[in-house]
Input
Amino acid sequence: MFNLIKAAKKVPQKAPVPLPNADVLAFFKVLAEAYKENQQTEREIARIEAAKEILITNIKEKYGFYREVFDQIFTERKAIMNKHFDIIDHGISTNNRDLVLCGLQGLGQLVSTSPFSDISNLSKMLENDIPIEL
Amino acid sequence: MGFGSFLKNVVTFGASGRIEDAIESYKYSLEKFNELHEQVESKRKAVNRNLEKLVQSKKNALLSLRKMKKISRNLGKTRQRDLQNNDVSVDINYTFSTIDKTISTGEIAMSSTKGASVGVSTAMGAWALAGTFGTASTGTAIGSLTGAAATNATLAYLGGGAAAMGGGGMVAGTAVLGGLVALPALILTGVFSHVSANKKIKEIEEKEYEIIQATEDCEKALLSFDLISKRSIEITTALDKARSAFEIELNKIYLSIYPRFYSKFIKSIRKIFTGKYFSADDLNNISYIGKVAYSLTQLIDQPLFDEDGNPV
Output
């Protein structure tokens, strides 16, 4: 017991080395700034990813819709054209001039009507998200 | 995942893996873009083939229409009076003048185009596709207009007028290539913390976004080419049918007006005595074939593009 007290007395009585307060603060400041910057970058990444998803969806839907509409337009026009062809053929085979002229005039009218005439309105509707009734 | 990647991920606390994921996503978008770009190129060729068919079809129709002259040349100056006296519609004069105009304009286009070319960038192409035969005496200027229309055609009204693939595509392609070259540098300069990893990921994401934007240009060009193809096939089909009907009816009418080899001689004798080369029946026949020819003319005159190169 005596030895222990003796040994304790031999321990230096100096105060511990003080921590550099300024460096600690700077360290935490840098850490906080880095954290903030990281948060900001992550938000931007999330924004770009969302924009990417929206763009991909828009492209798919927009062009899918255009294709569907134009497929229908051209299919319908082809059917009408075939009817005119039938009228012309029938007119020729029966020597019915009125039928031939009727078929040719119908054909001319169909072809002179642009299948793209409503595209501008269609595009505006899509851009403005106006519901389209088919 | 290889050992290298695993080690990188350990050292960078997963940051390296996140960058690799972003690069994979970028590469996927780039591949999709390149696929679409190839499709655009192949569609461009297909469109040109369809346009050439249309030009050829218009040329054939014009040659058929010229056969009208076999009949109409004998109408001469008495045409209007004879037709009116025979109670044939006076519109026939308008019809014949329209037919003559189409024939003469088409003939100028044909003579301005060397050889038998039906190329879309020739004067013949300009006349057949854009319905114009304008200022340039050689047809070069207008030829290049239709050439551009054929290859760079875009529906400008499709959502706001991005450049067509001929221009925009190359620009987009360059941007993409730039991005591709820059990426390995991004990896090498590599990032050993999530903070800098995020910055790199953001850059990659931005470049991927640019690719997706360029993809829209491809989609637009593909749609434009599809529509131009469909429209040109439509006009070609209608034109071929009308030409065939015209040829059949013209032969019938010709045989009806000149049933025998000496019919022309008899008509000439009649003109001496009566002042009329054609009979009333002949004029009715001519009136009819004039209407058929007029329908064919309308189809020949139907342009595929307007002056701005937009399909109509």
